[in-house]
Amino acid sequence: MREEKSNIELKQLSVGYGQSGRTTIEVLKNVNLSAASGEMVALIGSNGIGKSTLLRSLAGFQPWFAGDITVGGKSLKELTPGETAKLMCFVSTENVRIPNLSVFDMVAYGRFPYTNWIGMLTTEDKFIVSEAIRKVGLTGFENRSVMHISDGERQRTMIARALAQDTPVVVLDEPTAYLDVSNKYEIFHLLRMLAAEKGKTVVLSTHDLNIALREVDKLWLIAPAGNFQGAPEDAVLSGWLNQLFNNDHIGFDINEGEFFFKKEFRKKVKVEGDGLPLIWTLRALNRKGYQIVMQAKPDFTVHAGDHHWRLSYQNLVKDFVSIYELLAFLEADGKE
After folding, report:
1. Domains of the chain, CATH where assigned
2. What is the DSSP letter of 44?
3. Residues 157-205: pLDDT tens digits?
4. Rg, the chain, Cα only
5. At 185, is the secondary structure helix, strand, or coil?
6. Is residue 327 helix, strand or coil?
7. What is this structure's pTM?
8. Residues 6+ positions from 127 with CB-CB distance below 8 Å
9. Dihedral of CA 69/72/76/78: which sign?
10. Residue 257: which region, alpha, beta or left (left: phi > 0; alpha: psi -120 to 50)?
């Protein structure tokens, strides 16, 4: 059986922050959430709803107002800072810029809970640091100053520091911020492997919702209507994902499994064909706001073939060699 030392429980938790000389602000209250050892959990919600405050409280960086946080059955209030540092690590979105500090030295800070009082690294510590750097794709950057690398490289450096700390629980606030699409997937895959193969509990906040829905074991969803926890598929089927955005412009397509901008549909189109050309032609026309119909009478018809598209509109038949040309013609000719 998998050890339970990294199980997380948030019990009737209320979190917020203080203001100098002013009343404290409670941003979330009565939060009940959990994560099991070996699970990758995504905390999602709109900006300003309290995700970062919740994660900072979970990591022990700020006190909470009511309730409790337990890890492995122990309240964080019972742990010393040193014990907490060996239990969990935290990666924030703060832009760390320290002159004369190399990437290797920054990652090596993750080993401080295990070093002696002068912070001397052993051969094993150095190996762990080098492995963490390799896993985030920064081999060759060891001697670079953190002041002279990109935001994305700096973010990966901070994730490497968390890996070097080698704790049962890993907490990350927007770990894929500043990263391009390829690196976003690489970081999600890396965190997925840490949970699945190393048994670590990984909790991260993210706005990369489409990736999270495909990769994580569990969602912690914070919405104005309340809180939800469960498998991503449960969140979809229960309608909770549509609670994320309190506006009329964004929705969740339960069939496609993706978020979308709501549009007023234009004219009706019937699309014929098969395979990938059909799939991507449907996506393109939907993106432009055309209403896809199967049985109703269409305003025009598009046949999608292999590098060939044919538009039939009243008495007009016109051929195109790309979806781009087809869309451009529809826009320019006003057939909408």
Report:
1. 8-253 (3.40.50.300), 268-333 (no CATH)
2. E
3. 999 999 999 999 999 999 888 788 888 888 898 899 889 888 899 999 9
4. 25
5. helix
6. helix
7. 0.79
8. none
9. positive
10. left
